Amino acid sequence: MTPFTQHTGMVVPLDRANVDTDQIIPKQFLKSIKRTGFGPNLFDPWRYLDEGQPGQDCSTRPLNPDFVLNAPRYQGASVLLARENFGCGSSREHAPWALAEYGFRAIIAPSFADIFYNNSFKNGLLPIVLDKAAIDTLFTQCDASEGYTLRIDLDAQTVTRPEGVAHTFAVDAFRKHCLLNGLDDIGLTLQDQAAIEAFETRHRTARPWLFGR
Amino acid sequence: MPGQTLYDKLWNMHEVVRRDDGSSLLYIDRHILHEVTSPQAFEGLRLAGRKPWRVAANIATPDHNVPTTRVERAGGLAAISDDVSRVQVQTLDENCADFGILEFKMNDVRQGIVHVVGPEQGATLPGMTVVCGDSHTSTHGAFGALAHGIGTSEVEHVLATQCLVAQKMKNMRVLVDGTLPPGVTAKDMVLAIIGKIGTAGGTGYALEFAGSTIRALSMEGRMTVCNMAIEAGARVGLVAVDQTTLDYVHGRPFAPTGAQWDAAVAQWRNLVSDADALFDADVVLRAEDIRPQVSWGTSPEMVLPVDAHTPDPAHETDPVKQDAITRALHYMGLHANQPITSIRLDRIFIGSCTNARIEDLRAAAAVANGRKVAASIKQALVVPGSGLVKAQAEREGLDKIFIDAGFEWREPGCSMCLAMNPDRLQAGEHCASTSNRNFEGRQGNGGRTHLVSPAMAAAAAIAGHFIDVRALQ
Lengths: 213, 473
Ligand code: SF4
Fold this sequence. Notes:
heterodimer, A: globular, B: 473 residues, 5-stranded parallel sheet, 16 helices
């Protein structure tokens, strides 16, 4: 996994609440058995005017000029600014895969759906929760100045605006540690192999019916 | 010290280690796999040279992309016309064979939607931790099991370590007391709950459904309610164990027998929240106030009683909500203040992990019996949740009732719930659907989904537009 320490990047504002995983990456793209190739289909129903199919060459498809990601001024953005309950819906990890492959490193929103939030960390994508007032300010500033850029520091847990004002955000210590160091969860868990085995033995004795088949 | 909630008990029974940073390793008893979210996990396992920790903890079945017509099904894998779907189903077969995982394959009578199959087989037991790479795993919480959806990285993690890295959630109790009016079902109840607390209302919580109305529900009804906990933002939905739970589990293929059954039951009876347990949040509803529900918008919280009118954005003061209402009305092809009963339907879908169990099919058949699907309806599908549900329904003659009324009787799978197989809406079509998500394009690009109970879906099929099912009864 790509570590995340600091990131300075251009912001693209997606001004809608409850953006769900079906919009982030629609189901026809879930049929892939790979982890890659989802970037061109990120926000497919909003980004293109035709209905996307897996395996299609997206570079020749008609773009929806009204969708914010397609605006010339936001090309190259790596920070997504969003509204309440971003990522609600399914557990598909294809959503953070698509966002990361498109080039996003962080998403800033007032709230996220739980499963999406969790999946993001596992893919080097940092979801940042800021309060609504801060989000409103970011939307206003982003609108007003082309090339609006934020500096994100995971270690310090801050998002710093161009004029130097910093917002701090919360992140739990384990997720932060893994993301800072790009650590593989499985390897970390297997450091506790002995504890898992001991637990399993006790559990089996107390509840043998769980181990039937 | 206050007592423990059911969630606290389940958590404590499965916590392997608590790390310094506050996260824990949670031991997983049952892992259910399907074809969509598992291929990349198996690939990861192989690349790292790892093996499943405890093979017997896993069961698998393809559901999301299997075709539901008899012709396509009869031909097996080779007959799946969509190449990419076929590759996914085949990949699941190969991965299960390689790693020795028990799989109910596409044409096995035990195949079906993961959340129907697990409970039906007794593979979901009270007191278990159950995970699956699918957000509706909350369904299994109906058994007093700690169950939730996980992402593909976690599927790989559970395969390799039998554990999940987890953070303890907060506790919320949804208390529903009283008797549901006739014609009002578990689905209407859970839609009303989501309408009340919103799609993010349960975020960060384990949601326990309690009260006399929940106690009176069958296991099917409880599964419908827990299924949609995720639509209220809660990964976990729970119902305490009682005699109804035990009666359902008894005798199922994976359930314990003999002395082990007795020992299990003795433990399971304790799977209830203590009377003095403290919840971080409480929500209260009266069953008598709940009417048949219909979702009008593009989020499950956009739901109203069938006798209501669509909302008027002009009356909403919060600009974000106002914008959401305007956008949803536009997408759905509706206008403000329109009676719900004036919404005309193009297709009907009775199925999904929310409402494709035998009780759901009985409720829909009771409405369809002796009546005809309106001529204006292009297609009305009934898709049982599993091969065993289908067989049971056929023994009861429900298939005949549906076919006589003009419904199509299909093979089990997810079908039009998410339109990964050929069952889907065309742009602009309205569908009365017993599934759980009405997101834009969920049932087909440009499709318009209205979430309802099976009885309400059948009534809409007969009338051609929404009607209060109670008018037909
Ligand atoms: S029936 Fe629908 S919601 Fe349920 S598992 Fe299948 S696709 Fe998901």
